[in-house]
Records
---
Amino acid sequence: MNQLTRTTIISVLILFLALGLNAQSSISALPKSGFEKRIQNAVNAIRLIDTHEHLMSESEALASPADFSILFTNYQVSDLISSGMEQNKAFSTLKGKETKLDEKWLAAKEGWANMRTTAYGRSVLIAAKDLFGIDDLNDHTYLELSRRIQDSHTKGYYEKVLKEKSKIDACLIMEYNTSNPRDVEHEGPCNFRRFFVYDRYVSFFGYDKMNSRFGVGKKISSLKAYESFVDSIFEQDVKLCIQGAKFGVAYYRTLKFEEVPREKAEAVFEKMKANPQQLFPFEEAKPLQDYTFFRLLSLCDKYKLPIQIHTGLQTGSGNEITNANPTGLSKAFFKFPGVKFCLLHAGYPYGGEMATLAKNFPNVYIDMAWSALISPAYTKRYLQEFIETVPNNKIMAYGGDSQTVEGAYGAAVLARETVASTLIQMVRESYLTEQEALDVARKILRDNAITIYNLKSMFVK
């Protein structure tokens, strides 16, 4: 065998070996041409389940002033303040009912230039263009944009934006005022269902403050009476057909909850009662708060209600982000294996912790509401990680977390874009087949929420 022949054989062997190693690194076959467009079109066609909103009713929205500032109703004001706008000015001027339109624009103009590149800013531009035909918000367009917003705010507006433009089939609405709740169907075309927020029954630091917050008309005299009161409130809410319970206590305290003996909680209650006007430091109030939280979880367990818990970034300014680390909830997951814990907002910035919890606990689910509105890049990065680590029946990818339908629409566009982009990349890398990507898209944007949040009866004909 001459040198040329030997060299040729060795080269061919090396080529086959390289091809074999490359084939082993790919889980799926290479996709067929055009898969990107097919996946994008399929994602855009999915009828969404919106897992988390703070929408006012349509009648409330139509009764409010309508101009460009409604596009800043949600989180955009936080970015204006972060950019340097005075907080009082941001709310009193931009949100003032009596403020003239040109004054609002002058107040927001500088901050808008600074925050327009954030995802919050992108959602403003998305809504302005798609809903009102205005390509940009600037000195030359704010008046016309405001006119078109005002003209659009007529009866039937919610149906147009939510059902037709956003393609939303159901919305879960967060309800704070349980003493005066809205109708079970709320108001609107999208099969609204309510989650009641129970923070007031957990995050209290003094006796008088606790009683005034509950509005019971008389002082709660003992921990036993308080337990009976909470039980009766929860039973009343269940009769009102609530879909689940929501806790946003990470705005006020750490999510690290402990199981507390009743005697210890009772001692804290009696100490507060003996000093009714005093506000106690968190460490002293914590045992009673923890005990009450577990009491509420036991009621969720009793009535088979799923719960949502705020994790990660808190809106507004000056919050303590470490309070919202979801790992603090582990003891609750162990204690109540029958409760569905839906952890909100992809835990931003605790995405790895979120994946670990959902992977390890059968009763923990990932709800990515608000995530794409915070950061599309984070959402894509961790959605891929969630798909790689967590069973795909435990991931939900869209919730607008908005007060306005314009905000819900912008969030829906961003959520679809992040889902499609992530799945296209995973197919391109041959981690998923095209069919697997399509199946995952429908599950995380629709089917999982229907199952996890007990919405199947809404879609039975």
Note: The chain is about 50% helix and 10% strand.
---
Amino acid sequence: MLLTAGERISMAVLAMAIADLGMEARSFTGSQAGVITDADHGKARILDVTPGRITQALEAGHHHRGRVQGVSQTTKDITTLGRGGSDTTAAALAAALRADVCEIYTDVDGVFTADPRILPNARKLDVVSCEEMLDLAANGSKILHLRCVEYARRYGIPLHVRSSWSKHPGTFIVDNPYDEGSGMEAPIITGIAHDLSEAKITVVGVPDEKGKAADIFTAVADAGISIDMIVQNVSAAATGLTDISFTLPQNDGPKAIQVLQAVKTSIGFADMLYDDKIGKMSVIGAGMRTNPGISAKLFRAMADADINIEMISTSEIRVSVVTRSDQLEAAVRAAHTAFGLDSTEGEAIVYGGTGR
């Protein structure tokens, strides 16, 4: 209840501000707006939206503004959705109301080829596919929350990201902008995301026997920890031992070390190394599927910038690399230039500077 007080104040003040401008406005809490969530406080997931009161208000000619809360389906307690909750609520409400588009206002002019806070010569994108935006959001881009993009994609709601401070047209995020007939060709590289929030654990001297990796990752999963990249070295023939490295959120690092320590004897590994001075850069673009040589170009750019790559992971439309954290910004700059993303139109404007 206390955590949602800020939202309740915001929505009432916003409704008053709109009323001052001569428009009619009403504010709704999450439960009044019909946002039904699970009971996982702090990171509740939206299960359903039943916007009866909002629909009635809209039919009566009211404007409304939903805020970041819901009501648990089981306990009827107020829940909060955690970081990105306002984006996610907006997309869910837009889907429930069958809106044409969901507009999300932020402190930059849209989605850029890289974070304009560290790369002032990043370019604004007019359109991004949901698939690319999901990868950007999942790999450190702060402009939109992953769950918001997932929700919009699932229900076919276009997202329109724009600045609260300017009249610029912003960026549209739609499911298939590069369909035949759209006249748009998928860019080879759409954007570059970076992430300083991960750490790396290396489990040293793991017996190269079947089931050992399963034992390690089961212990981590049972502790409720999500992992990102995994790299296993080739086992040394002489010793029959191998090393397994993986990345995970820094916040979960101590817990992961603790659970692995508990199974050290039963799994039979020698040691563990923990490293939170890493940075991850992800180069993302739907056009990668049909353009060979992306990895080669990226690794050449890193070598020329004297940046060492520690781990690599790829998908159809993404190449991610791990570097030292203090080299991450240099890596983003080098990749941005190598793939021809640098803007010729001057610097990107960050209006609020909040990082959201």
Note: The CA atoms of residues 308 and 349 lie 31 Å apart.
---
Amino acid sequence: MALTEFEAVPAFEHAPRTPGLVVMKFGGTSVGDPEKLKRVAQRLVAARDAGNKVVAVVSAMGHTTDELVALAHQVSPTPQERELDMLLSVGERISCALVAMAIVDLGQLAISLTGSQAGIVTDSSHTKAKIVEVRAHRIHEALGRDEIVLVAGFQGVSADSLDVTTLGRGGSDTTAVALAAALGADACEIYTDVRGVFSADPRLVANARKLDRVSFEEMLEMASSGAGVMMARSVEIARTHNVRLNVRSSFEDDEGTWITEEDDPMLEKALISAVVHQREETVYRARGASAATLFGALASANVNVDTILQSTEEVVFSAPPEDKTAASGALESLGATWECRDDLGKVSVIGAGMKSHPGVAAKTFAILEAAGIAPAVVSTSPIKIACHIPSDQVDAAVRALHDAFELA
């Protein structure tokens, strides 16, 4: 895992802990229709009635963002990124305003704020902006008036141009965690359509187990290896600023999964916590360019590099399929000799306990060999073993590893 490829940590100093302040983030499925919007409003009012100061971050309703992207491409085959950000920021603003209206109807005070009004200041990289500062004056003022504050996720304002910017995939999570750090919140609650973080994707492994607690390090590895419940950059911000995360269901009252520091006395260091996967990840092999030059060009092209392996003759790295055009352009600009494979996915075994238990790698490879699966690329960290394997063998590998490590 290339930690340097995660979002730069926001420049602000995290605020002292503010008892009773909670940041609650709701994803697109949680606000997918008017009835769900009303349920979100009810949950926020209940949190306020319990004596908390409440800041909520909401995503766009359902598939609104995808629909706006499709609309943009119907109008222009190559929409300008600045204007695309202006367009895509609308979805979260709609959700914010509607939830605020519903809260007022329930008898509580509420105010909706755009990302810029909430003080989310970013760099100038459109569609993949990074947060550099949070100026939360208006939020503090609204909390002082006992208002529930709704902040449009996924967006901010460029410090240089004052243009609207969007934060890319997982941007609403990033907004919520950055606000929790800047405000000194007791916790950042991430509400989604699943009950928490599982030992494997429950859609693939029926007996996958919900994890009560995982460490920041484990969640960071899981997020970067395909666990879609949270994006890696938001977990990195939480780890850096020690923001306690709670991933839980929007539709149930289950406690969910807590994501905390590794020295949390409640955290059990399981040998293996989870088996996570990505069905598609492009793997590149490049020659003729130094690692510094190569990864400098990829960073300038906003390519999210994951696995990195280097020998004296070549550099091997992986990146999401959606970054292939940008990665190819960067490689061509360097005049490097390169090739890539689009037929690979990735399966990763993750657990803090493997630091002190030898033999996990041997068992992993033995299980894959017994299933007739030969990894094309293998990479490791102290708490992860990641194998790039043919995409059509990913499901079988996940089930075999999950069973063999007795994670059910």
Note: The mean pLDDT is 91.
